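The methods section describes the discrete structure representation at length, but only in general terms. The central task, working out the structure tokens from the amino acid sequence alone, is never made concrete. Nothing conveys this as quickly as seeing an actual entry. For illustration, here is how one protein appears when written out as sequence plus structure tokens:
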Amino acid sequence: MHNKVLSADGAGAIIGGRNIQNRYFGLSGEHVFRDMDLFATGPAAAEIDASFDLFWNSPAAVDWQRRMDGMPSSSADQAPRWRQQIADWANKAGLGPAGSLADDGAAVLDDPGMIWAQSVLLVDSPDIDEDAPGAGRIAEALKRRLPQASESIDVEAGYFILTEDAIKAIVAMIDKGVRVSLLSNSLRASESAMIYGGYWAGRDALIAKGQAVRELRGNARLPLHPGVQGAQPQSTVHSKMAVIDARYTLVGSFNFDPRSANLNTEIMLLIDSRSLASQALSIMRAGWHADHSYRLRHQGNETVWIDGQDDQAKVHTITPGATWLDQVVIRLVRYLPARWLL
């Protein structure tokens, strides 16, 4: 299970790629993740809530209270103390007291920033027997929908590890005139050299076709919460987001890799709105800036990383920040048939 959902009474829900941990909110002071979440209300929120119930009531779900029986202190006993700790932390961070959706619902619906649009929820089944490896519902839906793009596909993804079939499908779309752009992680922003090596094949296929590929620097100065002090932490793309034809926005938990396609359960929301797509593209383009990311292109038969812009740009002919061991791992993963494991 890789789903990321926060649902409140079926009236409002947050969906995206963010895990519930301080560092995923830029609050740890050690690591900041570039991520994307959507708040949904109306039918979309009800569908997201129903997907939560689907997993909650699944035979694969375990009753945590039963597992806690016989232990000195149950989670219920600790709940008041945890609530107070959260309230104290929120006040210290300047977030203010938590309200309720019931109290603030009218304000949410009247917010001029809300965009009203049609959406489709894509969600895998928790039934392990039904969804055997290779039969992920979201993966199958994307195989049908992405080739329908007629103008552009803009992707921001921390994981972009494509199978040979997926690479062929994207190249076929490019050959039909569809423009593709990608923002992913540089080696220093990535979780490991193995993950970085696994993404080379898809990345290089895009570069070879003249498409725009950028990699976030590990020291990119992404915005932090004002309450966080100290040196700029490591930065990493953790988003799972795509914009299709500057009209359809896809956000959720699905990484563009074999694990999300074949092993994990995932959830994504597809929204038909040029206004929302415009906002999503603006967020993406902020990450494209030369202060935050490298631009990649081919020089002869090799990939180079362009660091900076105009006359101040520096060209790296080897992976920026790579040690000799990193280079060995990257090349091993690149050439061995192991991408399906990543």
The chain has ten helices and 15 strands. Residues 246 and 278 are 7 Å apart (CA to CA).
